[in-house]
Structure formats: structure tokens, C-alpha cells
Design goal:
alpha+beta; Rossmann fold; globular
């Protein structure tokens, strides 16, 4: 299925884990990228997790995710550092406005992040 990241045809609060790998930077214009981030957050179930890997603007994504109420946001560069020039990945563990999910999803995200970092 090919869809527009800014208007995903999926129900709210439907996913425990969302992974975006080298995709959001392809959305033209900053407003479109902001909308794609909003869509990802909209799709998360209570306690859902989000992992974004991208080569541009990850610091902007981090700021927007915090403004949307996401918590436990960790940003790292490809080399494990802070991610110069916006390069890197984000691991968002839990939305602030949704109750936490039991440890299963946290463990899956920890494994995904560990595998991705290696």
C-alpha cells in the first residue's frame, strides 16, 4: 500500500509500535513533515512507542514530539553521539497523555533500538 504520510487512512490509537526509517525527510515542506509526525502520534495506542530514524531534522522532530506531549525522548546520532546537523534517530518511549503499556512493548523497543544501534 502506498499512502501519504500526512494523511494516513488508519484509525486513531491503533498501533503499539511505529517505526519510521528514512521516510519523513522525504515529505516536502516543513509543514508536511510536522503533519507526518502528528499522524504518527495519532496512530499510537496508549503507551505506544515510536522510533524514527532519519538523516535530516531529527532535532526538529524531537521538539515537535515534546510539544505533542511525548515523553522519554532520546536522540542519538548514527555514531551514537548527539547527531550532528540533524542526522540520527529518535526513540520515544511513551506519550505523556496516555497511560503506560505493560513492559512487553518497552522490552521490544529496547531490543529494536539495541539492534538498530549495532
Amino acid at each position: 500500500m502506498t499512502v501519504d504520510l500526512t494523511t494516513l487512512p488508519l484509525a486513531d490509537s491503533n498501533f503499539d509500535l511505529i517505526l519510521s526509517s528514512l521516510a519523513i525527510h522525504n515529505v516536502r515542506r516543513g509543514a508536511g513533515r510536522k503533519r507526518a509526525i502528528e499522524e504518527a502520534v495519532r496512530l499510537l495506542r496508549p503507551g505506544g512507542r515510536l522510533l524514527i530514524a532519519d538523516q535530516l531534522a531529527t532535532n526538529e522532530y524531537r521538539v515537535q514530539l515534546a510539544a505533542l506531549g511525548m515523553t522519554d525522548i532520546a536522540r542519538r546520532g548514527w555514531d551514537g553521539e548527539g547527531g550532528g546537523a540533524g542526522h540520527g534517530w529518535l526513540a520515544i518511549l511513551s506519550p505523556a497523555n496516555k497511560s503506560p503499556h505493560p513492559g512487553l512493548m518497552k522490552r521490544r523497543l529496547e531490543l529494536a533500538v539495541k539492534t538498530y544501534a549495532e
